[in-house]
Amino acid sequence: MSIDIETARKVAHLARIKVEEDRLPALAAEFSNILDFIEQLNEVNVDDVEPMTSVTPMRLKRREDVVTDGNYQDKILSNAPDAREGFFAVPKVVE
Predict the structure, then answer these.
(1) What is the domain partition of the chain in residue ranges?
(2) Cα three-residue angle 33-34-38, rounded to 5 degrees
(3) Model confidence over 10-65: pLDDT tens digits?
(4) What is the rounded end-to-end Cα distance, in angstroms, of the chain?
């Protein structure tokens, strides 16, 4: 597929890229090369190819999903300037 200079100008405008007039022929040629490469990729038969998420098959380490409070309440509240009844105490802001 061949891209002309006017199409390259339009694509540059849509992409909000400022391209000088003397660079438009090179840009059009580059776009054409990219589209030719995509056409080559479309010719490859990938019907029986399984999609990959990685080049090496690995199973992720998993842990049991258990809900806990962490049991760190005393450690966390020890950093607070004012803690009361197991909670952070803050000054009243709204009357």
Answers:
(1) 5-42
(2) 115
(3) 999 999 999 999 999 999 999 999 999 999 999 999 888 888 777 777 778 888 88
(4) 70
Q: Is the pLDDT of residue 83 over 80?
A: yes
Q: How far is CA 88 from CA 5, 68, 71, 76, in A?
A: 66, 20, 16, 9
Cα separation, 30 vs 38, in Å, equals 13
What's the rounded Cα separation, in Å, for the pair 48 and 50? 6
Burial class (CB in 10 A: 0-12, 13-18, 19+), 41: exposed
Q: Is the pTM here over 0.70, yes or no?
A: no
